[in-house]
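Fig. S4 source data, part A: sequence.
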Amino acid sequence: MNIGVASDASGVSQRMIRHYEKIGLVPAPPRRGSYRDYSDADVHRLRFIANARDLGFPIEEIRTLLGLWSDRARSSAEVKALAQSRAAELGRKVRALEAMRRSLTELAQSCHGDDRPDCPIIEHLAE
């Protein structure tokens, strides 16, 4: 199948498929004339990558997960450790975002939001 069909079947844009090939996350498929010829296995791999990206895994961890996926002698403990580490990192990001949201809410509440030029939001940003 060509890249358009592989993109539709996997849910991964053509641009990202080319990027994944360029960085070696997906092997370049054989060519049929001037077209890349993707297999069902390629589409499955692209879906795996898309699912991992949706869960917040960075490229290097996806590379590791792909290696574990293809290693039938793998230990599930390795996969679990990666997932727990990613979940902990996402928890840290959630806490940081929540702190930012609280700060912005407090600043917005302290701003009159009228025709006057004084604004605690601008003052805070200028500190």
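Fig. S4 source data, part B ends here. Helices lie at 3-10, 14-22, 40-54, 59-70, 76-110, 120-126.
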